[in-house]
Amino acid sequence: MSRFTPVLATGLAAVTALALSACGSGEATAAAGTAEDPVRIGVVNSGDDYWNTFTDLAEEEGISVELVNFSDYQLPNQGLTDGDLDLNQFQHLQFLAGYNTASGQELAPIAATAVYPLGLYSQKHDSVEDIPEGGEVAIPNDDTNQARALLVLQEAGLIALRDGGSAFSTPADILEDESRVTVTPVDAAQTALALQDVDASIINNDFVGDADLTVEDAIYSDNPDSDAAAPYINVWVARADDADNEVFQQLVEIYHSPEVEEGVLEASGGTGVIKDNSATELQEILAGIEADAS
Question: What does the pLDDT read at residue 31?
Answer without folding.
Answer: 63
